[in-house]
UniProtKB/TrEMBL annotation:
The name this protein goes by in its record: (2Fe-2S)-binding protein
Stored Pfam families: Fer2, Fer2_2
Alphabetical list of InterPro entries matching this protein: 2Fe-2S-bd, 2Fe-2S-bd_dom_sf, 2Fe-2S_ferredoxin-like_sf, 2Fe-2S_ferredoxin-type, 2Fe2S_fd_BS, Beta-grasp_dom_sf, Diverse_Oxidoreductases
Organism (species): Novosphingobium nitrogenifigens DSM 19370
Molecular function terms from GO: 2 iron, 2 sulfur cluster binding; metal ion binding; oxidoreductase activity
Domain 2Fe-2S ferredoxin-type, residue spans: 1-76
Keywords, ordered alphabetically: 2Fe-2S, Iron, Iron-sulfur, Metal-binding, Oxidoreductase
Length: 169
């Protein structure tokens, strides 16, 4: 049994300690915005923010997450208007969308540490894989999100989802 905080709510998972956090989030907590990609922590599709740091949830066990604060894509912004989400929409940096939640979480963690990242900071700090190749737009997106965070640019209003399902944006 693992106790942790998920999206600012205390949660107790009655699962084995070696269960990957990814499966606890998706299967037990129904937080399906976090995606399964490679299962080895290389692709970033399952990225969540743990105690302020972007981490792949497929390689982090519940035992390792015990007592920690986890933020998923669903908890990043209840109204989907985090500056990174606004910038992804404004820059049209979404293709198929599968990698988007992981990219958003990695970018949010990067900007929380450094609201003025250089292009090199972004390229080195965001190692997620996008099969659609949004990389050139990704740099512009994160730069724009930084401007929004710093108050140098107004954000856009991201519409609420039309259904109760969570796509993860």
């Amino acid at each position: 049994m693992a106790r942790l905080t998920v999206n600012n709510q205390p949660v107790e998972f009655k699962l084995e300690a070696d269960t990957p956090l990814l499966w606890a989030l998706r299967d037990a907590a129904n937080l399906t915005g976090t995606k399964y990609g490679c299962g080895t922590g290389e692709c970033g599709a399952c990225m969540v923010i743990v105690d302020g740091q972007a981490m792949p949830s497929c390689t982090l066990s519940l035992g390792e997450a015990e007592g920690r604060n986890v933020i998923t894509i669903e908890g990043l912004s209840p109204d989907r208007n985090h500056p990174v989400q606004q910038a992804f929409v404004a820059e049209q940096a979404i293709q198929c969308g599968f990698c988007t939640p992981g990219l958003v979480m990695a970018a949010a963690a990067l900007l929380a540490r450094n609201a003025s990242p250089t292009e090199d900071d972004i390229r080195n700090g965001i190692t997620n894989i996008c099969r659609c190749g949004v990389y050139p737009r990704l740099v512009r997106t994160i730069e724009r999100a930084g401007r929004i965070l710093r108050g140098e640019e107004a954000g856009i209003r991201v519409p609420a989802p039309a259904t109760s399902t969570t796509s993860g944006l």
